[in-house]
């Protein structure tokens, strides 16, 4: 270390003398030259004195800047769910459509909170073409229960255009109960699979299957909870299953642990680590649930026990896990009872918001600016 410092000192002295001399060749005035050499001298002295404390100054500079960028990205990923709702009665309430349901009576709109922290992230509602650019050539897998199905529908709505002919048939096919669904949107080479996976164990099997086939989707959205709550009604079992899922996901990732680097891993072919999202459970409004069985089994107490199990599983980013939360809980809580008819499945705008949240997180993670 001493020798290094001495050599640096000599080097610094040379620079302090030679650079201003070179500048003098460039017709700088004597005062300017003195100023430059003074400034250089001070800068170099600071560097030399700091050197022993850091592996190298350049390492320091890159680590500081990556920490700053990393912090910004982590904080934006954490803020991406901060959405506020405006739900108000529609002006023309006298709808004569006998089929109109109670949720149709309310105008709902959402946006990201206007706090300075959230604004700094510049989240945007993405247009069809934004989404097409972002997802061009991607493989997206959405797996889970009915909430996941609604998210898949909402994503296709955005990419295909909600009122296209194509979307009508998608809607029909996607809602065949309890079945998988695949679509290739040729225009943008987007492949999307919906996988009906009502239990956490089904998600674990899915991960195992992908691992076995060595096929890695670009985006993997998973979520489960309600089905398990209704049919098994045992939060410890849910907790155990989530932990197994977490282990499986962690070992699945070619490149876990850092949001910071999403580059290719070393190896013959570059494999990017998939972007992973967990679809949280919606708030349940017990009195609105449509069967007696649901009202009994899906109590608030049970809901909270399931929610704790998710927290304890360390599956999510917030708890050091691999998956980014799409916070359906806060979306549904904030949209409120006027956004649901059955206390469980919510208005399309909730899942639309969820999709925009996911795409914005995706933009941050892949630091793409489109
Ligand atoms: C109401 O729903 C029924 C059956 O679902 C349908 O046949 C009818 O056309 C609908 N009416 C309107 C006004 O949409
Ligand atoms: C998708 O990407 C391909 C090649 O990367 C490009 O040729 C094509 O125009 C893109 N399509 C859209 C809709 O952005
Ligand atoms: C999901 O898992 C359950 C229990 O582990 C199993 O009985 C069922 O067949 C699985 N369903 C699918 C669609 O894989
Ligand atoms: C709940 O699940 C746990 C873990 O799988 C199991 O040990 C326990 O017996 C189950 N409880 C009931 C009431 O089935
Ligand atoms: C989305 O597209 C619009 C124009 O179509 C553009 O102004 C905007 O910057 C795009 N958003 C992103 C996130 O790139």
UniProtKB/TrEMBL annotation:
Chief localization: membrane
Spans traversing the lipid bilayer: 6-26, 33-54
Localisation per UniProt entry: Membrane
Single GO term (MF): acetyltransferase activity
Record-level GO cellular component terms: Golgi apparatus; membrane
Classification via PANTHER family: N-ACETYLNEURAMINATE 9-O-ACETYLTRANSFERASE, PROTEIN ALTERED XYLOGLUCAN 9
Name under which the protein is recorded: Pmr5/Cas1p GDSL/SGNH-like acyl-esterase family protein
């Amino acid at each position: 270390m001493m020798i290094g410092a001495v050599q640096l000192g000599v080097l610094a002295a040379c620079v302090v003398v030679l650079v201003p001399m070179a500048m003098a060749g460039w017709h700088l005035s004597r005062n300017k030259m003195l100023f430059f050499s003074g400034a250089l001298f001070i800068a170099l002295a600071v560097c030399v004195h700091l050197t022993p404390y850091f592996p190298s100054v350049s390492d320091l500079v890159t680590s500081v800047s990556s920490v700053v960028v990393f912090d910004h990205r982590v904080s934006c990923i954490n803020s991406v769910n901060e959405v506020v709702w405006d739900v108000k009665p529609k002006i023309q309430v006298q709808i004569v459509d006998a089929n109109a349901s109670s949720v149709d009576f309310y105008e709902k709109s959402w946006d990201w909170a206007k706090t300075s922290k959230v604004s700094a992230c510049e989240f945007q509602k993405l247009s069809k073409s934004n989404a097409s650019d972002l997802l061009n050539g991607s493989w997206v897998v959405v797996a889970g229960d009915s909430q996941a199905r609604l998210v898949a529908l909402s994503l296709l709505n955005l990419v295909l255009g909600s009122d296209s002919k194509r979307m009508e048939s998608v809607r029909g096919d996607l809602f065949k109960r309890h079945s998988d669904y695949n679509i290739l949107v040729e225009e943008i080479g987007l492949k999307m699979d919906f996988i009906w996976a009502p239990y956490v164990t089904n998600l674990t099997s899915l991960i195992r299957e992908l691992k076995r086939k060595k096929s890695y989707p670009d985006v993997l959205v998973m979520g489960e909870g309600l089905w398990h709550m209704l049919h098994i009604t045992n939060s410890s079992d849910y907790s155990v299953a989530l932990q197994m899922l977490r282990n499986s996901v962690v070992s699945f990732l070619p490149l876990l642990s850092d949001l910071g680097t999403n580059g290719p891993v070393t190896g013959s072919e570059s494999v990017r680590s998939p972007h992973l999202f967990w679809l949280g459970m919606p708030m349940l409004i017990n009195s609105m649930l449509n069967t007696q069985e649901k009202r009994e089994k899906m109590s608030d107490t049970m809901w909270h026990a399931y929610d704790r199990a998710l927290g304890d599983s360390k599956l999510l980013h917030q708890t050091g896990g691999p998956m980014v939360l799409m916070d359906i809980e806060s979306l549904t809580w904030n949209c409120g009872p006027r956004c649901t008819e059955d206390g469980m499945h919510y208005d399309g705008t909730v899942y639309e918001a969820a999709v925009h949240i996911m795409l914005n997180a995706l933009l941050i993670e892949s630091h793409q600016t489109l």
